[in-house]
Amino acid sequence: MSPVPEPDSVQDQTALAAPISVQATAPLTTRGKFLFAGAEKFYVRGVTYGAFRPDAAKNEYTDLAQIDHDFAQMAESGINAVRIPHTMPPRALLDVAAAHGLRVMVGLSAEQYAGYLIDTQKRFDIAAAIRTEVQTCAGHPALLRYRSGASLCDDTTLDLGPNGFVRLGAYALVNGARIFCDEEIEIGDHALVSWDVVLMDAYRAPSLRDDHARPIRLGRNCWVGFGACVLPGVRIGEGSIVAARSVVAEEVPDYVVVAGNPARIVRELPRVSADLAGQQGPPRSSS
Questions:
Q1: CB neighbours of 199 closer than 8 A, spacing ≥ 6?
Q2: Among candidate residues 109, 115, 114, the one with its CA nearest the CA of residue 146
């Protein structure tokens, strides 16, 4: 973004334009696979803004005049959403965004606390720290959602029916899977789904009289190996591993390895301690 001239006064730094439409002010809701602002569908057209060099107090996003200038250019270009990475922005940034009709995706940066999970000698309430950060922007009309680190890689395919809904947990990674969803597929926190995995909650076969969708649940910290197929109604337990090219037709318990077609338990895994399991990542994100 181009630099903005120096303001003549402090008041100029916080001068904001008037709100521009219901899309900028109405609460966002989820209906099926779409976001709605009031009665209108909300299509996200976003960019990442930052990170920038912090000031002497180690704070970013303090130059409100520059932010106002940059957000005005974004709005003029048809952008309606801004992602703030790696840090919790000041609430004043969301005020500026709202004035230009922009929604803000806020980064929680929970990955910075990973060291506390490794060093068991130190006690730190990760959930409490993140809740404190969340309150900075909680309830602001410009808040699009909190970013919790989940990723869908570019070659992942989502084939959603009219009522299909895919729920992606914090820090889950889906790397090139094929997801066919007519009801609901839930991928838990920290789950890993490898390339060419197929998740299907319905067969979509007209010849099957009882072919109705049944939800799929992947538990926290599970790992589905490449080329595996997870069939309708399956739950994969917390911490479990599905071997490559397996076909999973039945429920998988917590902390086991399954393999084969059909997949069967071939090994049990050590369970994560209750203290550690309770600190693995932030609370569920919400918009």
A1: 177, 178, 179, 180, 181, 185, 193, 216, 218, 230
A2: 109
Work out the widest C-alpha separation in the chain, in whole angstroms: 73
128, 177 in Cβ contact below 8 A?
A: no
Q: What's the one-letter identity of residue 118? A: I
Angle at 194 between CA 247 and CA 219, to 5 degrees: 70
- The Cα 101–Cα 75 span in angstroms is 7
- Chain segment 58-115, per-residue pLDDT in tens: 888 989 999 999 999 999 999 999 998 878 889 999 999 999 999 999 877 766 666 6
Can you tell me which residue has the tokens 């203290």? 275
Q: Give the integer Cα–Cα distance in Å for 20 and 76.
A: 12
Answer for the pair 176, 156: CB distance below 8 angstroms, yes or no.
yes
Within 8 A by CB and 6+ apart from 110, the residues are 126, 130, 148, 149, 170, 171, 281, 282
Q: How far apart are CA 219 and CA 174, in angstroms?
A: 14
- Strand ranges (DSSP E) for 64-191? 81-84, 103-107, 143-147, 151-152, 157-160, 165-168, 173-174, 178-181, 184-187
pTM of the model: 0.60
Nearest CA to 216 among 196, 232, 192, 239?
232
- State whether the Cα torsion 252-258-260-266 is positive or negative: negative
CA distance 258 to 252: 8
The dihedral of CA 92, 95, 99, 105: what is its sign? positive
Domains and CATH numbers, the chain: 10-147 (3.20.20.80), 151-268 (2.160.10.10)
